[in-house]
Each structure stands twice: as structure tokens, then as C-alpha cells.
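=== How it folds ===
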Amino acid sequence: MSATVSLQQLTDQLEHLEAEAAQAIAAATTATELEDLRVGLLGKKGKLSGVLGAMGKLPGDERPLVGQRANVLKEQVQSLMAERLAAVKGAAMAKRIAAETLDVTAPASFTPPGHRHPLISTTEEIVDIFAGLGYRVSEGPEIETDYYNFSALNIPEHHPARDMQDTFYLGDGRLLRTHTSPVQIRYLETNPPPVRVIAPGRVYRRDAVDATHSPVFHQVEVLAIDEGLDFTHLRGTVTTFLQRFFGDLPVRFRASYFPFTEPSAEVDVQWRGRWLEVMGCGMVDPAVLTGMGLDPERWSGFAAGLGVERFCMVRHGIDDIRRLYTSDQRFLDQF
């Protein structure tokens, strides 16, 4: 660049650079070529910087004119490069798609068939049995209030029965349900008796993890309310269910205690030569019926509850509840 550079000379150089850039960008066919052009034109040591380096030799009032023209050139070059890059990428994708056309007539590669997790299949079997007995399925929220989880089930505040179910409390005063019985209360609020309903679902308790306990597990609760129901109806329903699930095995009832049923019982089946506890049940406590606005002199009912994991483990001879949650393919392939 000569010492006597003029405004016209720098303007002509910028015009020439603009034409050269447009031609080179239009001819580029790859993203790499475009990047090389960008560096060569607009980089710190690029052609535009070389032109601007001579701008200091112009009079002060002429320098802004060169600067403005250079900014226009820079914007134009960047715009052209963006458009060309989009076109280059689009052409490359179209070429790739054409080369990778899917042959829909080609035989499919082998895909191993899926199957039900043992907990899912056990739950479905339990639901199917009760559906055959005239029960319908109801579901509810896993995050509950103290009222539905405890109070409405005849478990008031400070009642010792709350110690039987160590609860996960949330920061807003709500809790993770400890059983699916709250679903039955919610169902009764909008469905007057007679009712026959089961409530399968996930529940939560502060249990230490070991071979037979988990802080997250699954239950199915059973509820029937009608005129004239008594313990013989409960016994017949539970026995029918257990013998359909386990086979024609002996079933026995042992007196027990639950705050929302009276009388209450634990139920055992004689499985492979020994008695196994499998569920609890009882007649709905009149206090629960009264709390729901039902006349216990007219209506009576029974309830039962079971753990799905327990039924699954007994049925399949599983020795550790943790096997049901580890996603071990070797274990799952057995079902």
C-alpha cells in the first residue's frame, strides 16, 4: 500500500473484494471451504483487514466513509456465507437420503419379543379375578392428604395405628400414601352404595430395604358395601379369590386388628406344606361408614388388602423382593 493512498483507491479495493467474495462463496461446495473463505476474507489476517490497515493514512474526515463501506461489505459476506452454508448442508442431506433409501420390502432383523414384568402380570391376574367377581377398578393419587390416608379411615391424629405405617411426609403437609385405601374413600364420595371396587396401585412406607421389605411396593385393596353384607360374604369372596389365584388350597382366617375394620382377620394359605400369611381383611368399621355419610344400620361392608409383591414372590418362588426392581435381564427372562 503506497503512502499516498486515496479514498478512491480504498473504495475500489473494497468493491473488488466484494465481487471476489461473492464469486468464491457461490462456488464453494462444502462447509470446510466456506470456513476457509471466511477466515481468508474476514479473519484477523484476512483481506478485509489488509484494506482497513491502510485506512490510517487517509485524512480524518475520510476514514469514517471507508469504515462504513467496510461494515456493509462484512455484513454482505456473512449473509452470503450463511445462505450458502444452508444450501450446502441441504444438498448434502438430500444426497445422503437418496443414498440411504429404506427398502420396505427387505426382511426385518430379529427382534426379541417383549413380555410382561412379573409384578405387572401378577397385578393383572388379581384384577381379572376380581373383575370376574363383579368388581370394578378405581385409581387415585399417590400424593395424599392426612384426611384421606388416615382420618377418613378411622385413624385420628396421635392414634397408635399410625405407628404401624411409617409415613413419608412432604413439605406442604401432604404425604405419600401408605396404602390404597384412600382410593376407596374418594370413590365413595361420588359413588353411593351398593359398590364393589378394587384399588390397585403403588404405595410408600419408611421400610428398610431387605429381602422382604421395600419403601415402595404395590397393593390391591378390595371394598364391597351393600345391604346385608356380613363376614360370611367376606370369607366367601376372599376364599374364592385365593383359590383361583393359588389353586384349591386350604385357607384359614386368624383374628387380627385394623383400625378401619371390625372384626378384622389375617388370611393364610397352605402353600407347599406350610402356612403363609397373604392378606388382611375385615368388616368395615361403622365409624368409617358414618364418616362417609352412610347409615351403618342400613349399609354394611367388608374390605381386604394384599401386597402384590408377596403374591408374586410366593407364586414364582422368588426369595428376595429386590430382584423385582433391579432390572436384571437374566431374572426377567424367566417370566
Notes: The first helix runs from residue 7 to 27. The chain is about 40% helix and 20% strand. Residues 7-99 form one domain. The chain has a mean pLDDT of 87.
